[in-house]
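User: I'm putting together notes for a lab meeting next week and I want to include a structural view of one of the chains we've been expressing. I don't have a solved structure, so I'd like a prediction I can at least talk through. The sequence is below, exactly as it appears in our construct file.
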Amino acid sequence: MSDEQTDGTTEPVRIKAHTWRPALLWVFAGFAVFAYAFDQLTKLWVTSTMVEGERIPVLPPLLHWYYIRNSGAAFSIGENVTWVFTIVMAAVSVVILFQVRRLGSAWWSLALGLLLGGALGNLTDRLFREPSFAMGHVVDFIQLPNFAIFNIADSAVVSGVVIICLLTIRGIGLDGSGHHSADSAPAKSGPPEEEAPGDV
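Assistant: Thanks for the context. Below is the predicted structure for the 200-residue chain, given as structure tokens.
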């Protein structure tokens, strides 16, 4: 008797998760495409309208467009090992895609979408820009005071990481378990206690 009741109480949760998952995948895919497209379009605009090394004031002294090509990471770290960053970004993208099947949270979908879009944006530069395949230099153009010059892909990656850190601090898992743990526990434990006298 108790086994049947347990199955009955968990079934609505399974149905809800099943119907909710396609929406989460759309959120993930939408933000990944947005971040990637926005990054590539802004880089196309920069490379077609500016000369490398050109600096344009936007909101001086806070914001400038400053077109550079970076072979390394932030603050020009690792300029001589460009291929390492290519491999790292490719690996990150693969790991994210493998984790998508576990999505159960809209915020995680947003975070991983931004992370994937940003990683693929810079990976595209590494693979297809000069000087050679997998050794390409990333286009950076956003300059803030006392900070590394970056691009939209970098912004997407950082935003995704920040959201992931906040979700982790709040105890919200990739499958969204943190959202429902407080609500679902009483719902599951309540019915068996109410129906227990009837089992005797």
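A couple of points you could mention at the meeting. Residues 1-6, 8-15, 180-190, 192-200 have pLDDT under 50 and may be disordered. Residues 143 and 151 are 9 Å apart (CA to CA).

User: Perfect, that's what I needed.
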